[in-house]
Amino acid sequence: MSAGVVIVGGGQAGFQVAASLREAGFSDPVTLVGDEPGLPYQRPPLSKAYLAGKTEAEGLSLRPMAYFADHRIALRAGVRAVAIDRAARRVRLGDGATLAYDHLVLATGSRNRPLPVPGADLDGVYQLRGLSDADALRTAVETARRIVVVGAGFIGLEFAAVAAARGLDVTVIEAADRPMARAVSAEMGAFFRGAHEALGVRFACEAAILSIEGAAGRAVGVHLSDGRDLRADLVVVGIGVLPNQELAEEAGLSVSDGIHVDTSLATDDPAISAIGDCARFPSRFADGLSHDGRVRIESVQNAIDQGRCVAARLTGRAAAYAAVPWFWSDQGRYKLQIAGLGGPSDASVVRGGGDAFSVFRYRDRRLCAVESVNRAGDHMVARRLLGSSVPLTPEQAVDPAVDLRALAAA
Ligand code: FAD
Predict the structure, then answer these.
(1) Tell me, what's the pLDDT at 344?
(2) What's the Cα-to-Cα distance from 260 to each of 86, 165, 177, 338, rounded to whole Å?
(3) DSSP conformational letter for 239
(4) Residues 75 and 224 in one domain
(5) Cα dist. 363→181, 265, 347, 369, 396 in Å?
(6) Among 206, 237, 268, which residue terminates a domain?
(7) 170: in domain
(8) What single string gives the DSSP state of each residue in 387-398?
(9) Alpha-carbon distance 385 to 391, whole Å?
């Protein structure tokens, strides 16, 4: 009997390959191995509705238990894959079992980058990645009064918005000169800074955290590079992620900030693919952004589309991965939507104004990304334009008389 497909990582990407394989009529065994307990679940609500207590854990599951049995997906939850024997095509699990595969998919995701300062291990210091982190934070905000958020990225800011809405005292520390500096334009960063300040959030930008101060094992404050000391009974660290690539690296596959894959998402070993947060893949959206023309993208869209792409290849419909990247972040009453990939030196033009506008970003006069706040129509058009060869000049982008929808449909 065929050994079928083994998927390591029971998150968004891993689940998607399994589901898409069955949708495509794949009939060989499919095994999904995940080190987190329980059913595969969605992470985005962990820093949004779930954190705010507006949805419960059952509402996060990607599918109910019955789905896995009905679709003959063998779910091995709560167990880690610890080694790959490529010659024998076997994966060893932490509980001593081994699984044979015809094809192995690595969907191991990413983990939070640790904060390298004294005091980072004190009680009262949190990071947010999984359901258990979100549960701990939900409990901690019940009694917290003064919160310091380290890192003004998406997760730190989403958390800040939820905490400020509860009336808590929140200060966000950021090493760059503005929020979300790596991911969005100066215009969008400034808008969101203002939106958070209107909620009462304070910012300490161009400041680094040097240490977290403790008393009786608990965080009581932070010490900053600009000499300031801030009191805090809760410190939330959101300073980016690291790809979970060690399993691949130890098996001799190429890695560097992610597991290297080709345009079809296969690793150096044609019997092994890698997808989602852990995969570094060639992309035209990386032109001018990365030294090797490859990117690693941390988003639900990327995880789902890459899962579908690998399932299509394994069922005889191979195609290069070419999806337009897109992303969203909910912060307070604002939804930020991004299509494409922007970089720090891109030029920007703005369409619209007030609290409903889009920033069109250009690299070498080519549209490379569009950031929209409260302009869902622009976002949808941007995804179509970025996926097509229809050019949009910066002059057209800012001109309200230009019908973007008609242009995208052309
Ligand atoms: P993951 O979801 O991380 O899944 C990987 C799984 O593999 C994990 O369960 C991990 O524990 C497991 N694993 C790792 N190694 C092993 C091993 N050796 N053996 C077994 N299992 C293993 N994206 C958006 O587009 N929009 C958002 O608003 C948004 N909000 C987010 C909010 C939060 C709080 C977080 C944490 C992420 C958010 N993201 C958002 C990002 C998005 O959730 C990720 O990009 C997506 O989950 C990536 O899917 P993945 O399957 O690649 O990785």
Answers:
(1) 87
(2) 16, 41, 32, 25
(3) -
(4) no
(5) 17, 26, 7, 9, 16
(6) 237
(7) yes
(8) TSS----HHHHH
(9) 8
pLDDT tens sequence across 111-168: 999 999 999 999 999 999 999 999 999 999 999 999 999 999 999 999 999 999 999 9
| Amino acid letter, 38 | G
Whole-number Cα distances in Å, 387 to 59, 127, 217, 324: 32, 35, 52, 6
How far, CA to CA in Å, does 17 sit from each of 155, 247, 312, 352, 404?
26, 19, 9, 39, 34
By the 8 A CB rule, do 272 and 266 touch? yes
pLDDT for 166 equals 94
Given 280, 314, 348, the domain boundary residue is 314
Report the run of H or E that residue 163 belongs to, with start and end: helix 154-165
Looking at the structure, do residues 107 and 9 belong to the same domain, yes or no? yes
Helical (H) or strand (E) element with 51: none
Pocket test for ligand 1, best of 108, 131, 329 (most atoms within 8 A of CB): 108
Q: Confirm whether 67 is domain-assigned.
A: yes
Tell me, what's the pLDDT at 164? Answer: 97
**Would you tell me how many other CB atoms lie within 10 Å of the CB of residue 169?**
18
Nearest alpha carbon, ligand 1 atom 53: 109
Q: What is the DSSP code string of 195-233? A: HHHHTT-EEEES--EEEEEEETTEEEEEEETTS-EEE-S
* Ligand 1 binding site (Cβ under 6 Å of any ligand atom): 8-14, 33-36, 43-44, 46-47, 80-81, 107-110, 128-129, 155, 244, 247, 276-277, 298-301, 303, 327-329
Q: Which atom of ligand 1 sits closest to the CA of residue 134?
A: 34
Q: Which domain holds residue 67?
A: 5-111+241-314
Segments of the chain scoring below 50 in pLDDT = none
d(CA 310, CA 321): 9
Q: Give the tokens for residue 175.
A: 């090493």
Rounded CA separation 168/372 (Å): 28
For ligand 1, the distance from its centroid to the CA atom of residue 277, given in whole angstroms, is 7
Crossing angle for the helix pair 12-23 and 300-314, nearest 10 degrees?
40
Evaluate whether residue 119 is within a structural domain: no
Is the model's pTM score more than 0.85? yes
- Residue 279, classed as helix, strand or coil, is strand
Q: What angle do CA 372, 238, 118 make, to 5 degrees?
A: 155
Say if residues 165 and 198 touch (Cβ distance below 8 Å): no
Please, which residues bridge with residue 75 across strands? 32
Q: Taking the CA of residue 218 as centre, how many other CA atoms within 13 Å lie in the half-sphere pointing to its CB?
A: 9
Contact 309, 303 (CB under 8 A): no
